[in-house]
Amino acid sequence: MSLLVVGSVAFDSVKTPFGEVDEVLGGSATYFSTAASYFTKVSLVAVVGEDFPEEHLNFLVGRGINIDGIERSAGRTFRWKGEYSYQLNEAKTLDTQLNVFESFHPNLPESYRKVPVVFLANIDPNLQLEVLKQVEKPKLVACDTMNFWIEGKLDALIQTLASVDILIINDGEARELAQEVNLVKAAKKIMAYGPGVLVVKQGEYGALMFNGETIFSAPAFPLEQVFDPTGAGDSFAGGFMGYLATCNEIDDVAIRQAVVYGSTMASFNVEAFSLDRMRALKQEEIKSRFQAFKALTAFENI
Amino acid sequence: MSLLVVGSVAFDSVKTPFGEVDEVLGGSATYFSTAASYFTKVSLVAVVGEDFPEEHLNFLVGRGINIDGIERSAGRTFRWKGEYSYQLNEAKTLDTQLNVFESFHPNLPESYRKVPVVFLANIDPNLQLEVLKQVEKPKLVACDTMNFWIEGKLDALIQTLASVDILIINDGEARELAQEVNLVKAAKKIMAYGPGVLVVKQGEYGALMFNGETIFSAPAFPLEQVFDPTGAGDSFAGGFMGYLATCNEIDDVAIRQAVVYGSTMASFNVEAFSLDRMRALKQEEIKSRFQAFKALTAFENI
Questions:
Q1: Which end of chain B is more exposed for a tag (fewer CB within 10 A), N or C?
Q2: Per the CB < 8 Å rule, is B205 touching A208?
């Protein structure tokens, strides 16, 4: 099945203990669609400014991504600037410039409206709802969100949650959304809002997936070189949703494997700045790391 | 094989968001030997004061633990007082009274000296070395340590590490011991000191086990009720070493399963204050939770 994503396409400036980059290609929808493009056909909805270079659009097209839904508006592209300490687990945001994103209202091209799998990346839940109104009976809808919307747009977010099958957020966000420290309890509260499946990303510790009463735990891949965690969560979601879009039946095993494919894509992404690792990534490497996750977690019949 | 442990037997006073207990049974060797007693015969080496009640000794004997190596000294028993916030991931130590532990020098009963599996719980590395001098060619030696000894007794600790097969510590300690933030790099540095196997406990996130070039990752069991994390690490070590002591061959699969048995015992321990959950724990519950770990981590052939 093909996959629709709405989110940000942006310029990131990032500093980690291992280096620094200035105004490189970034944004949630960019990371998501690049990771997902290894699995299925992706249609991207976003807005960029007049300053956004053809080169970056060509990269996306080169990955087979449909960019008909990228609107070019008067003004500057969304910019984010952040810094990581040696712990690498959380970015300190130094600057956010919404620019063209400030007045963005997604308007889906006709060809996008029947896409069966939809991912609403981390944007204003009101925009997420606008997208949902424009798609025709999708088979599977998932979304992301962040503390900013939990704190500022809770009502709209709860409306979005009522319409999605899967929510993918990090552990801090899950705790804040549920107002509950214990993750198992928090998951139950969040799933009561709508999503039957909740994926809780835990950064370097991996991810927990709640599916009704069952829980699946996947580690992050232990890496000797982590260069830049920017985009790890979006790459995770891209691998996760990209794999699910290839499944005939979206049952518990499929969702578990999707979590591992998500972790696989995230693990590659953090090996370099921006999308640089993805530029060189091969299908065989993805297969091989998925196998490595088995070796990492098996404790019988190895 | 039977198992020898040296460590503390103590009184703990603990406050968590869910309650408070005063001068209850605690100590690294207590948690360790109780958890290990579900797997094998345990011989305990420790010191208690004149104030230590028969009732606690009877509990240990009731678990089949050999307490011939518990010395009763003039003075008061070791006491620890700590508090946990809602996060429950790290105790804030409010008070430590070494008491009889201050002048303790382990003196192994004759019957202990040929025990084939040895665990040196978290005590002064000089005492760990004293114990190693008194045992005759053990087949397997493991140890624990903590920041206090890494900072204050590094030379003795490095001597201990040169004599052990397995080191079991938490992630913060691993990073401090190796002076390296990246855990994969830290593991390599630490294993160069001696231990062929390193188990890194990550609290609520589980554990990583490094065995030469291979890595195994096990989650912590997701619990809806965590009452008191005190003793989780020692219960982990007890389940881990207890299971290994039952294995004819200590190969990679055995060590992986031992990690899961360790996580199993830790997951029970945190369900109540002190050793209260262990007092009621049944073999069938251990088996059943070990199986639950498979369901938690499997992503094919479920």
A1: C
A2: no
